[in-house]
């Protein structure tokens, strides 16, 4: 099995939970201070050895491509003003040796369909899928962990985390099997958004996956599922029941930036972790708390 060098980023969603901000701007470009959410996912993929970034876009998502494309006019202006540090930062958003490919999802037919749209660019190669809404922070990030797990056992691998029982109905919940010597959890199935009392475990699958190209054949054969869409979870469940899926525990902290409070939490935590902002930000928070007390 070949080394994983390709990553798929489904970025065609409308981002309705963030309207009106996302009426004209893709949700993936919402900033965490000064860096768009999707750039965090791209940096995570590149750090894991990915050299080909495949963005599955929709209409009105041209700005995503513009962000990762060269902007020679801006670079020239920054150079002329002596702002070489800013110029280099803009120039290196996509590092040398990393390529970007943009694929159009013509209709919003679900996450599974978005992944299937990437098939011509992926070919027969294994690949990772990163959902930019899930911002990961920590010393080790899930894409690197997934790539390493795939190297030990080349099959579909999910990144999972424990969730509170009352939150099980929000996620795809695993039917876990045995755990092997490398810490890989066998996945016997996955239940999408089960009722709390019907959840088979407290392990939820989040927005990081490794797939073999077999997933494309499974997706092509799927009938529309929930919401009349092609659901990626249905494809994973079908492969899991055939014994072809494993999972690893997510080694990082996840922020759901598709949720307003999750997005706000990410901004606060990133600011507190930044030496340039931490002290002033803490002072600001303390001041606001002091003046809001009854």
TrEMBL record:
Record-linked CDD domains: UGPase_prokaryotic
GO biological process: UDP-alpha-D-glucose metabolic process
Listed EC numbers: 2.7.7.9
Enzymatic reactions: alpha-D-glucose 1-phosphate + UTP + H(+) = UDP-alpha-D-glucose + diphosphate
Domain Nucleotidyl transferase residues, every copy: 11-267
The organism's place on the tree of life at top rank: Bacteria
InterPro entries, alphabetized: GalU_uridylyltTrfase_bac/arc, NTP_transferase_dom, Nucleotide-diphossugar_trans
Endpoints of the signal sequence: none
GO molecular function: UTP:glucose-1-phosphate uridylyltransferase activity
Entry keyword set: Nucleotidyltransferase, Transferase
Assigned protein family: Belongs to the UDPGP type 2 family.
Protein name: UTP--glucose-1-phosphate uridylyltransferase
């Amino acid at each position: 099995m070949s080394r994983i060098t390709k990553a798929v980023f489904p970025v065609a969603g409308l981002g309705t939970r963030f309207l009106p901000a996302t009426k004209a701007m893709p949700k993936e470009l919402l900033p965490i201070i000064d860096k768009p959410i999707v750039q965090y996912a791209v940096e995570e993929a590149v750090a894991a050895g990915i050299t080909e970034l495949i963005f599955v876009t929709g209409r009105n998502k041209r700005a995503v491509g513009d962000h990762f494309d060269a902007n020679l006019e801006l670079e020239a202006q920054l150079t002329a003003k002596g702002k070489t540090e800013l110029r280099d930062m803009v120039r290196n958003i996509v590092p040398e040796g990393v390529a970007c490919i943009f694929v159009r999802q013509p209709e919003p037919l679900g996450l599974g369909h978005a992944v299937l749209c990437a098939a011509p660019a992926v070919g027969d190669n294994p690949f990772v899928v990163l959902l930019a809404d899930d911002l990961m922070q920590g010393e080790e990030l899930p894409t690197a962990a997934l790539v390493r797990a795939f190297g030990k056992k080349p099959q579909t691998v999910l990144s999972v985390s424990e969730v509170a029982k009352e939150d099980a109905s929000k996620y795809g919940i695993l039917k876990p099997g045995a755990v092997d010597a490398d810490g890989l959890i066998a996945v016997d199935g996955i239940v999408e958004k089960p009722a709390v009392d019907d959840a088979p475990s407290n392990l939820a699958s989040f927005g990081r996956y490794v797939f073999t190209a077999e997933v494309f054949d499974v997706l092509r054969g799927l009938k529309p599922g929930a919401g009349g869409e092609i659901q990626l979870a249905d494809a994973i469940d079908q492969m899991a029941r055939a014994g072809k899926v494993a999972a690893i525990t997510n080694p990082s902290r996840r922020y759901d930036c598709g949720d307003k409070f999750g997005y706000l939490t990410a901004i606060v935590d990133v600011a507190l972790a930044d030496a340039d902002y931490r002290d002033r930000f803490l002072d600001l928070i303390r001041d606001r708390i002091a003046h809001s007390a009854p």
